[in-house]
């Protein structure tokens, strides 16, 4: 017998027990175990614990969880687009892509938003995150993604994987102001009354992510995101989302006529003791003028989030043309 084998024979039943102790392909099984693979429902508790540790608890946040902050990413239908690397039964690294369809000036563009790339502290600098990213990047064209999109504080890591910096057009305004005099009625969002109208306002934008009504309902109900509605006549005419979460901060999404949106902005700014942060996209360029007139500081955008580095990966250059990239913009509820 070879080393590591054990053979036990019963007079009446012959059983070869070699495979119970040392299978010749155990090395290949171990390698397979440590390769990127899709997340399963059984993985979720470990995945959420890893991500909450890195993105929430280590930042002192104890009243938020990535599971509720990113419900559509971890929905059953998207789990196959979440990847993990495991070692000895433990999830040590994670990355995900959230495929979206964006309408950009009438053009349909598939965008893969990269979400929650993280590795356990004791498993870093071993290439796990890069392996996950490469696996996701290979999978994205089959998901209909023409462009990859992400936000990061470590652009050099992604540049080595083929990503490039991209700055959308627009402005980032910060300031505070008293509420403007207006006859417009401003009320809090009530899903049972307002969801359909707010969904239609968002979908009417010249640049927007295609959402189902159900997706809009989920996103408008994200934790620590307050939605206010300007009523024009007897119907909602505009809405504004104010993010108060660690991953969504400031006045991050709106739709409707700029004048109505500014009335919502002014009211939100008047209710805080710190400067408000407003992302202004050229579809609502007059908001930048309103902000300057109110004494706000206005500067060019560096990313759809207002600050930080935004990066893109061109997957289909026939669709992801320079003209499309110049107009690419992700509203706050679609950001990772």
Describe the 3D structure.
This protein is of the alpha+beta class. The chain has three domains: 27 residues, no CATH class; 164 residues, 3-Layer(aba) Sandwich (Aminopeptidase); 130 residues, Gcn5-related N-acetyltransferase (GNAT) (Aminopeptidase). Helix content is 26%, strand content 30%. It contains ten helices and 17 strands. The strands form four sheets. Strands 3, 4, 5, 6, 7, 8, 11 and 17 form an eight-stranded mixed beta sheet that branches. The chain has a four-stranded antiparallel beta sheet with strand order 10-12-13-14, with helices on both faces. The chain has a three-stranded antiparallel beta sheet with strand order 15-9-16, covered by helices on one side. A hairpin with a 2-residue loop joins strand 13 and strand 14. The chain starts with 7 loop residues before the first strand and ends in a 9-residue tail after the last helix.
Keywords:
336 residues, alpha+beta, Aminopeptidase, eight-stranded mixed beta sheet, four-stranded antiparallel beta sheet
